[in-house]
Amino acid sequence: MNRGTTSPALPLPPAAGGRREGDPPGRRSWAAFDGPFGLESGTDLPDVRLAYETWGHLAPDGANAVLVLHALTGDSHAAGPAGPGHPSAGWWDALIGPGRALDTDRWFVVAPNVLGGCQGSTGPSSRRSDGTRWGAAFPRLTVRDQVAAEARLADCLGIGRWAAVIGGSMGGMRALEWAVSRPGRTGSLLVLAAPAASTAEQIAWGSMQIAAIRNDPGWQGGRYHDAPPGSGPHRGLGLARRIAHVTYRSEAELDTRFGRRAQPGELPARGGRYQVESYLDHHADKLVRRFDAGSYVVLTQAMNAHDVGRGRGGTARALRRAGMPALIAGIDSDRLYPPAQQAEAAALLPGADHLRVIESPYGHDGFLIETEQVGALVRELLPPPHRPGPPGTDRRPLPLECP
Ligand SMILES: CC(=O)SCCNC(=O)CCNC(=O)[C@H](O)C(C)(C)COP(=O)(O)OP(=O)(O)OC[C@H]1O[C@@H](n2cnc3c(N)ncnc32)[C@H](O)[C@@H]1OP(=O)(O)O
Ligand SMILES: N[C@@H](CCO)C(=O)O
């Protein structure tokens, strides 16, 4: 195991370095595990690197650690301002920080970039030991593989049991997999807008996005990473994002916001765009500039394969393994992961009483937008102590090296 600091936009430093006591909060680091790292498919990755960010300080007994897991196109920058390597502020910045729902004066928050991603963790755009990029040769991953890698990271950080594992969408799939596969390491659970198993329709949406990328001539069978800049499958990735983004928002929101209006200065009857088309173009353009198409395919395949009940006697039996206190939340206007699906999971999880419903006009993206309601759920899961101690007195340095 090695660790160091990096930014996804910068070349990795040699395998060395590490966090030191007193490091500023929001420190970005990475951990590399020597392989072979066995995958559910039966193949191996020769080595694995996970990028992660942390906020707060780990208590001497390691009991104040909270794992926060991002969605499909998210990354480890869950909190903090925009800056080098981070075009936007953290995606849950409103929730993580001193005095916020995930109070970093009390909790040590860890957010890894998912295995298969493209923001510092091993994925299709990473280089292999011979210097070539994985590209099409990158193996199929499952949510279980991603959680296994996160468990290796927890081992390395000396975190035997998370006080809570929290995630939305694809991050919620991983949170649920943590609870089912590692109940002894998952102290409590918050799953937002995520299913116990992807349905036919969810797989269908994902497969259309994968097809959009693969049908772009720039895909080149997945071997485009060393092609000249600009010749990759950008059009396909942009189309995938447009398809996905419609599923992330509600019909009512799109209608209220854009209706049939033309984009200012453009006339649809003369080849111009509707406002909603321009909006989708904008989101496609933004994603293409920050995300790798190969990672998009690998992560979407992992979401399509997601089924906590596979090989465990079915969903109901699998969920019964997870007895920790749990909150399962759905968004009332989510058409991608309808709340009724999560209500079934809530009914089956021993530690969850009933589905929590986030009210939002925004659809699936409500787990990113409705931070007040999400914060209330986090506070319910991790209530403030009756007598808080002075912040920052209980802390231990993270190990510089793992065995
Ligand atoms: C866990 C994770 O997923 S982490 C990664 C965070 N997620 C993403 O980045 C996914 C992409 N973004 C989103 O899904 C959303 O922007 C969210 C969820 C982050 C925030 O949602 P909202 O605040 O409702 O933003 P919304 O979807 O309205 O988009 C606003 C953008 O659309 C642009 N826009 C709005 N109308 C139009 C239009 N007619 N034409 C062109 N652009 C438009 C705005 O200018 C704004 O641009 P900017 O983001 O570059 O400043
Ligand atoms: N906007 C989110 C939706 C997927 O949950 C993302 O891009 O990751």
Automatic annotation (TrEMBL):
Catalytic activity, EC: 2.3.1.31
Coiled-coil intervals: none
Record's catalysed reaction(s): L-homoserine + acetyl-CoA = O-acetyl-L-homoserine + CoA
SUPFAM superfamilies linked to this entry: alpha/beta-Hydrolases
A GO molecular-function descriptor: homoserine O-acetyltransferase activity
Active-site residues (renumbered): S169, D334, H364
Record field: compositional bias (Pro residues): 382-391
Positions bound to substrate: R241, D365
Subcellular location: Cytoplasm
Biased composition annotated in UniProt, kind: Basic and acidic residues: 393-403
Disordered, as annotated region: 1-34, 382-403
Residues of the signal peptide: none
Family per similarity comment: Belongs to the AB hydrolase superfamily. MetX family.
Function text: Transfers an acetyl group from acetyl-CoA to L-homoserine, forming acetyl-L-homoserine.
Protein name: Homoserine O-acetyltransferase
The species this protein was found in: Streptomyces glycanivorans
